[in-house]
């Protein structure tokens, strides 16, 4: 997935709306974690675009080590 700038080891709980497009920060440089704010420009990385089927709270990964992008799966290796 490449080097990320994020330092947080903990996921963020957010309320997502059904059928709305979201942009998950892959690079870790966004000041709007866990969402992309365009800080990746020039890094060669792009955000992950995703949609959820139901309006609900979810835990989104911020450590960038998840195997279930963009959702937290507690996979951290530290």
Automatic annotation (TrEMBL):
GO terms for molecular function: 2 iron, 2 sulfur cluster binding; metal ion binding. Pfam families: zf-CDGSH (PF09360). Coiled coil: none annotated. Keywords: 2Fe-2S, Iron, Iron-sulfur, Metal-binding. It comes from Nitrosomonas europaea (strain ATCC 19718 / CIP 103999 / KCTC 2705 / NBRC 14298). Residues 9-46 form the Iron-binding zinc finger CDGSH type domain. InterPro entries: CISD (IPR052950), FeS-contain_CDGSH-typ (IPR018967), MitoNEET_CISD (IPR042216). PANTHER family: CDGSH IRON SULFUR DOMAIN PROTEIN HOMOLOG, CDGSH IRON-SULFUR DOMAIN-CONTAINING PROTEIN 3, MITOCHONDRIAL. This is Iron-binding zinc finger CDGSH type domain-containing protein. GO terms for cellular component: cytoplasm.
């Amino acid at each position: 997935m490449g080097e990320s700038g994020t330092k947080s080891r903990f996921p963020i709980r957010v309320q997502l709306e059904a059928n709305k497009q979201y942009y998950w920060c892959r690079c870790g440089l966004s000041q709007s974690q866990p969402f992309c704010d365009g800080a990746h420009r020039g890094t060669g990385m792009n955000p992950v675009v995703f949609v959820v089927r139901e309006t609900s709270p979810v835990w989104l990964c911020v450590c960038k080590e998840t195997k279930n992008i963009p959702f937290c799966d507690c996979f951290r290796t530290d």
